[in-house]
Structures are given as C-alpha cells and as structure tokens.
Automatic annotation (TrEMBL):
Keyword Transcription: no
Ranges of residues in domain Glycosyltransferase 2-like: 529-609
Molecular function in Gene Ontology: glycosyltransferase activity
Pfam families: Glycos_transf_2 (PF00535)
InterPro entries: Glyco_trans_2-like, Nucleotide-diphossugar_trans, P-loop_NTPase
Family per similarity comment: Belongs to the glycosyltransferase 2 family.
Keywords associated with the record: Glycosyltransferase, Transferase
Protein name: Glycosyltransferase 2-like domain-containing protein
Protein species of origin: Stephanodiscus triporus
Organism classification: Eukaryota, Sar, Stramenopiles, Ochrophyta, Bacillariophyta
Length: 875
C-alpha cells in the first residue's frame, strides 16, 4: 500500500492470547501489512509488565512509546501484541493523542480489542510462558512462579475493565461463539473491507492458536485400600495436582484383584468418575487390576507400574509418573515445570517431545530419582515401561534409578528442582512391603542405553560422562568431606558423591553437631543431616553408613555397589582436592579409548620452606613415591596408583577383603586385577588431576607405627601375584630374625645384641648415603613444578631426615615381616620382595637386590665381629 496517501490502521489493543493471532492471520489474507512482534525486553521490564502493567506502560509511553505507536501505524495496516496490547492502561487522553498525531500523517487509527474469557486467557498465557521459556528468561523466583497465574489473572481483569472504560473508542471482538458471524460486521466499521471478505478470510484461517495442544500428564496410582480413607487421600492428591491450572492429566488407578469388588473400591471409583465429568483438567479415568499373588511373596509394584504406564500411554499420556496416596505435592506449578523440562530436552537433543525422564525433587530423599516422569518416547522405544528382556529383573525396587540412568548420559533425566514433593512412606523410610532389590541392574543399564536409547537419537549427539566419586570415611572429618563434595562438576559430567561412613559413632557425633535441637538421632537421620549439609552447593550427595566397621576395602565395595556410573573416582577422606579435579579427569576421559581402564591422579604431599623434619623424612624414604607417580610419566606409565586419587572404569571387580581394614595393598591388588580382567588394559597418569594429602599426624614414632601397620597387610600381594616377586638378600628385620637364634646359642649378651642392631641400623643408613641418591632425595623434599619451594635447609637437616627415613623403612619392613609370619607365608614371605613398579622399571629389582646385598654383607660382617667378640669373652 502507498503510505503517502491516507490509509486506516487497525490497532488491536486486545490482551495477549485473546484472539490476536486469528485477527492478524485473517487480515494478512486480505493483503494487510501486519506488525505483531514482541520487543526484546530486559527481565526487569518484562517482570514489571507482568506485575505492574500500568506503571510499566506509563514509563514506556513517557520515553517515546507514543511516537513509536504512531510510526508503526504509519507503516502498517494492523498492529497488535507487545506494548500495543497494554495501551488500554493509558488514560483515554493518551489514546486520543495517538489518533491525533497519526492523523497529521494522513493515517486514521481504529482501535479494536479482541477478547476472551479471562480464565481461558490465563490458561493460554500460562502455556505461552512455558513454551517460550519466559519464566526462566524473565528470572522469576520460585515464589514469583507460584504467583504467575495470579498476576496474569489480575492483569487480564484490569485490562478488561480498562477496555470497558474505552466504550465508544474501541470496537470489541469477543472470541466467543461463532466469530465468523460476529466479527465481520464489527470489522467493517473499522476497515474498508466488506463483511463478506472478512467472513471468507476468517473461515479460511479458522481460530488460530500459536500454542501447540497441551500435553497430557499420566498420573499412575496404586495402593491397598483396606479400611483407610483412600478416597480422601486420593482426592487430596489430585487437588494438589490440579493446583497447577494449566495441568491436563489422566488418571490410571491400579486396584488389587482382591479389593476390586469391595465397598471401598466402589466408592473410590465412583468419586473419581464424578471428578472426571466435572473437572476439565482430568481428561479420563482408567482402572487396571493388579493380579493377586501369594501372601508370602512381596508386592510386585514395578510390574503394576509397567501395566499402568502402558495403559496411560495407550490413552494419550505424554508422560507418566507413579505417585502414592502418601505423597504430598508442594509445588503449585509442577506441570509447567515438567512441560518445560521435556521441551528443553527435545530442543537440545533434536528429538520428539516426550523423550527423557526428568524427576521430582523428593524432599524425603534428596537427589534420588524416586519419582521419575517417563516420556512417551520410552514406550516408542521399549513398547513398555520395563523393557521386555528385563521384565523379570524388577519386583519392587530399583526401577526408578534404572530408568534414570538410561537417560543420564544424554542429560535427559534432570532433577526438576522446583517440582517438590514429600514421600510419606517411601524414601529412606521402610515402605509397606518387603524390599526386593533388582540384581545386577547397575551392570546392564548402560548396555541397554547403548543398544536401545542411543539409536533413537541423532547420530553424533554428544554424550555426558557418568562419573561417581566414592569416599570411604572412618574419621568423618566434615571439613575434608566438604572440600570433596563442594567440587565443581563440569557441564558434561554427571556425578554422584557417595560417602560411605565406616564409623557409626563418629557419624552420630557429627550429626549431633549439625543439629543443635536434637538429642537423640538415628543413623538414618544422621545420614540425611550430613547429606543435606554436604549438598549445599547443589551437588548430588549420598551418605551411607555401615552397620559395623568393615574397613576401607569393604566400604569402597559398598560405594561401587551404590554406583551405576561408567567411571568411579576413588578418593580418601583426609585430602583437599583442587577445585578443577573433575574437569581435569573429564578432559582426559574425552581422549581415551576402551583399552584405558583407569586414570591415576596426583596425590601431592605439601611442601613448605619450614617443613618439619619428620615430614621431610617421609618424602626421603620413598614411601610416598607412588602417591606422586602421576607426575613421573617420564619414567613409565603406572601399573597402579593409590586409592587416595585414582579413577577406574566401573566393572564387576571388587576390592579384596584379605587386606588390612585401614588399607595397604588393596590398591595394588585391585588395579592389577582390573587390568588383567580387561585383557591387557592400561592406566594413564593425569598429573593435572591433583589433590593435596596432608602428612599423617603425630610424632616420628607415630609415623613409623603408621607404616608398620600399613605393611602388615600388603605382604599378601606376594602370594597373590608371585610373578611380580623376586628373591633378595635379608633386610635388617630379617637379619635380626635369623641372627637371633645364633645369638641365643652363642650366649651373646643383650647389650651386645642391642649394639649389633644399632650398628646395623647405622650401616643401613651409611650404605644408602654412600651408594644411594642422597641429592635426589633432597630434590624430592623440595618438590617439582608449581609445588617446588626454595628451601634453604642445612645438610644436617637432610642427614637427620635421611636417618628418620631409614627408620620409617625399617618400621615398614618389620610390619611386612610380621604379616608374613602371621600368614605363615614361608614360600612367598621372608627374603622375598615385591616389584612395586610391576616391571615398568626393568632394572629396579636388580638395583634393589644389589643395594640389599651391600647392606647384608655389612650386617654379616658386624655379626661375625659380634660372634668373635662373644667367643673371645667366653674364653
């Protein structure tokens, strides 16, 4: 059209979602130039338009809004939506000013207002907010989301009142009745087109709605009716469901076969049928029968869930969720939240709507997917809730986490944080039936993902890494646990932090400190308190407590049994990780192939210019060498690493319980068996994945005792892996052991024998000083890389540290000898050594044997001199 000559512009001041799309589409068919855009608004302005539209519009008008309307009118034949829909909130004088200004440009403005029932408008706007993700984009808080419906309704009523006050200035176009008959006559009053042309245009476009049809939520409900007030509980639950006015749902009720003909069942079914007739939100009711089963068998709720889900999907449900009559929903916008979550999954993965299983935020069991909402795509893939080949695996436990893990690698099973509920009889509390865990589901769930879920999604879709962190804890030192559980979890990694408490009393003490108002706390409550405390940053935390002290290996095994991840990261409970620990592991995991069975992180002992001499001795003893092996990739690729910081692929292999509860040897054993079971897999070092391990507390003798206890158990490796053992000359404790009978036979005095031991210890130290690598040991104390410190300590300091280092080693050798004797390991014990480098350093056994030979010959010379002296004294 030629806008240099006079023309008419229809300005539709109807509120959003009131028929504006229908009018615009009809006008477009008649050749009108349409403007119906929503401007890009800041969250603050958008929120103000929602909560205080009058002030928002007046601010807009005073900053050039009137001129903007006139400009749009001069260049279009019909304008609507955006700020235009809110013009009725301006005074009538302002609207007349718009008309006068437009007239100066030869443009005549005609106001119309499409309208519809307020409740229908609110419902349509709610869906618009969900579909266009406005709640998140505007930044509504949880409380503001609860008030969204109220604010939309208030705005709609205010708008309606203002339209009525504009009588005579605005032509009304109600979206009620047959608009093909009512609108054309009204539109002829504001346009040059005939009623017939408008009628034809409206007939062609129909009643337009830019929103898709609302999805249907399938509520699955089963319970024992008994003598309880089941009908009241169900009514209460459905009332909570319907608090979300947008919610459109169907109900599938599972009734046990033996209760189907009871009065309670008849009353409940009749009430629900009446509800379905009266409530528009409830689309339909479906009754399924749970087959009777022997009383001695537990209720197969998973199979009942499967039957109900199939029934719901067959009747049009877009997603299903199994609820119980004891569930209390505390989120009045749960439907909107899940609707948006499914849209997010669909948009991100380019899959049909209904793929995935976002889950409720169960306040009684935080972080656990107790109530997943399973989309209809699951039925398209498996033709059921439980895959046919897994029907016998699930009785009444573990189906929810199994389905959750099926979609976890795609990030398609998120917790919908705002959709909160409380589960009265589930969660960590005992349910009404005997629990029957599903055997082995953690071992086959990722196979099912690869075989069934992955082919459904577009090729090349990036997958997340499932990496759980397992921390056994005896000490339960909260500050250390916080440093682990507060780790930053990268976007492409899905992580559960699994804390296995191996000291019930310590857990109860910590829980009491965390809960000042409780005097008596159960173990289950203590787990929950610590769990919530450690989950403050939003990470998923599980705290489990052993009934009895089982030891590090058994606790790690329990952690493995709790995990269904691809990878597990073992950490100790007395270290401080770098905040990017998971990010560093994640980068390496993106590079490796299937042959790599694990990654060895760096366990750094702290260096400092004022390091205590007893701690410098630990470093000079080489006893901490394997802790820092990850940064020695110039030497070799490690065959094992300490469980203080090591990552493995999750397998069926478990830690062996033959080793000491406090640890020692189990890490070597596990790593070697994992690599062997993989058919020759390898470990790779990741020095960037760093944790700082404080030195063990206590005096020199406490540290020596620590190493003594450490080595009592690791001697079991000699018999388990004889291929990594070799013969050597007796070390100092073994020399003492074999010399003692001779001393008794030759009647050597105690003082002389004590001197012999002291002389041997001095000889042990001197051989290391003369033939060893004294300067290299000093460099270890000073550190490397970013941990290197400028230490100006005297040679006397390092000499004393070296002496203490030899003391630690002797303590370690004494513990190992005691372990051999206790296990009666004659063939694989005394005079045998373990190649801790597992063949990576080819000459390591030879060099070690040579050093022990040098020491032993000196020991022997000292002993011969002692015997000669004793013989001379005897003569």
């Amino acid at each position: 059209m030629n806008y240099k000559r006079e023309h008419t512009c229809i300005v539709n001041v109807g509120i959003f979602r009131s028929g504006t799309t229908t009018l615009a589409e009809a006008a477009a068919r008649l050749g009108y130039k349409i403007y119906r855009r929503f401007p890009n608004l800041s969250p603050g302005i958008h929120k103000k338009i929602l909560q205080n539209p009058r002030d928002a519009l007046q601010e807009w008008a005073s900053s050039g809004g009137i001129d903007e309307v006139v400009h749009l009118a001069c260049n279009h034949d019909l304008i609507c939506d955006g700020w235009i829909a809110l013009l009725p909130f301006l005074p009538v004088s302002s609207l007349r000013q718009v008309m006068r200004q437009a007239k100066t440009w030869n443009v005549e403005i005609k106001f119309v207002a499409t309208s519809r029932d307020v409740e229908d408008t609110v419902k349509s706007e709610l869906q618009h907010w969900v579909v266009h993700d406005l709640e998140r984009r505007v930044g509504l808080s949880s409380d503001e989301r609860k008030e969204l419906e109220t604010n939309l309704r208030a705005r709609a009523y205010q708008h309606q009142d203002h339209i009525l006050n504009l009588s005579g200035l605005v032509e009304l176009l109600p979206l009620a009745g047959n608009i093909h008959e009512t609108w054309p006559d009204s539109l002829t009053n504001v346009s040059m087109n005939s009623a017939e042309s408008w009628r034809n245009a409206l007939a062609h476009v129909g009643v337009c709605n830019s929103n898709p049809s609302l999805p249907v939520e399938g509520i699955l409900l089963t319970m024992r009716l008994g003598g309880s007030a089941a009908d009241k509980k169900v009514e209460k639950l459905l009332g909570c469901v319907e608090e979300d006015r947008l919610c459109k749902y169907l109900l599938v009720l599972g009734i046990d076969e033996d209760e189907l003909d009871t009065d309670a069942a008849h009353v409940l079914i009749k009430q629900l049928q009446s509800r379905a007739e009266l409530k528009q939100q409830m689309q339909s009711l479906h009754i399924v029968t749970n087959p009777s089963q022997p009383s001695e068998k537990p209720f197969a709720v998973c199979r009942a869930w499967n039957t109900m889900a199939v029934e719901a999907w067959a009747n049009g449900a877009d997603w299903v969720v199994l609820l119980g009559d004891d569930v209390e929903i505390s989120c009045p916008f749960h439907y909107r939240a899940f609707y948006r979550s499914f849209l997010d999954i669909s948009n991100r993965l380019c899959v049909p709507f209904g793929f995935g299983c976002p889950f409720w935020n169960d306040r009684s069991f935080p972080g656990f997917p107790s109530f997943p909402c399973i989309g209809k795509a699951h039925h398209d893939i498996f033709r059921a809730l439980i895959p046919e080949h897994r029907q016998d695996s699930f009785v009444n436990q573990d189906l929810d986490p199994y389905i959750h893990i099926l979609y976890a690698k795609l990030g398609a099973s998120p917790c919908v944080e705002e959709a909160t509920l409380n589960n009265g009889l589930g969660g960590k509390l005992n349910p009404r039936y005997e629990k029957v865990p599903a055997q082995g589901w953690r071992d086959f769930v990722l196979d099912d993902f690869r075989h069934y879920i992955r082919p459904y999604i577009p090729e090349g879709t990036p997958e997340d890494v499932l990496l759980d962190v397992i921390v056994p804890s005896f000490r339960v030192q909260v500050d250390y646990l916080k440093s682990i559980c507060y780790l930053k979890v990268p976007n492409r990694i899905r992580t559960n932090f699994i804390i296995i408490i191996d000291n019930k009393e310590a857990l109860l003490r910590v829980a009491k400190d965390l809960s000042s108002y409780r005097t008596r706390i159960s173990v289950s409550e203590a787990e929950g308190l610590l769990e919530r405390y450690l989950a403050r940053t939003g990470n998923t935390i599980r705290v489990r407590c052993n009934e009895f002290n089982l030891g590090a290996s058994a606790s790690r095994n329990r952690g493995l049994d709790e995990s269904a991840a691809e990878f597990v990261l073992n950490l100790d409970d007395d270290l401080v990780p770098d905040n990017d620990l998971l990010e560093q592991y994640g980068r390496k995991l993106m590079e490796i192939d299937e042959k790599v069975v694990g990654l060895v992180g760096l366990v750094r002992f702290p260096r400092a210019p004022d390091i205590p001499i007893r701690h410098a001795a630990v470093l000079m003893s080489y006893l901490a060498f394997m802790f820092e092996i990850a940064e020695r990739s110039d030497m070799y690729t490690p065959a094992w690493g300490v469980t203080a910081n090591i990552l493995f692929r999750r397998t069926n292999t478990r830690f062996d319980l033959i080793y000491a509860k406090t640890g020692g040897g189990e890490d070597v054993d596990y790593a070697l068996r994992v690599t062997e079971a993989s058919g020759g897999g390898t470990l790779l070092p990741v020095p960037e994945a760093r944790v700082v391990h404080p030195f063990w507390p206590g005096s020199v003798f406490s540290l020596a005792s620590h190493f003594y206890n450490w080595s009592i158990g690791d001697g079991a490796l000699f018999k388990r892996f004889p291929q990594h053992c070799y013969w050597s000359f007796p070390n100092l404790p073994e020399t003492i052991l074999i010399s003692l009978p001779v001393c008794l036979l030759t009647q050597i005095g105690l003082w002389d024998y004590f001197q012999f031991i002291m002389h041997c210890f001095v000889a042990d130290f001197l051989v290391d000083i003369i033939f060893g690598d004294y300067n290299h040991r000093i460099s270890i104390v000073q550190g490397t890389g970013k941990d290197q410190v400028d230490m100006k300590r005297s040679h006397l300091f390092y000499l004393i540290a070296h002496i203490l280092a030899n003391l630690y080693v002797v303590g370690l050798e004494c513990g190992r000898l005691r372990g051999h004797i206790g296990r009666l390991d004659a063939q694989y014990g005394v005079f045998r050594r373990f190649d801790w480098h597992i063949g990576r350093l080819v000459d390591a056994p030879t060099r070690f044997r040579k050093r022990e030979a040098q020491k032993f010959f000196v020991f022997a010379a000292i002993f011969v001199r002692l015997v000669k002296k004793a013989s001379g004294d005897g003569e």
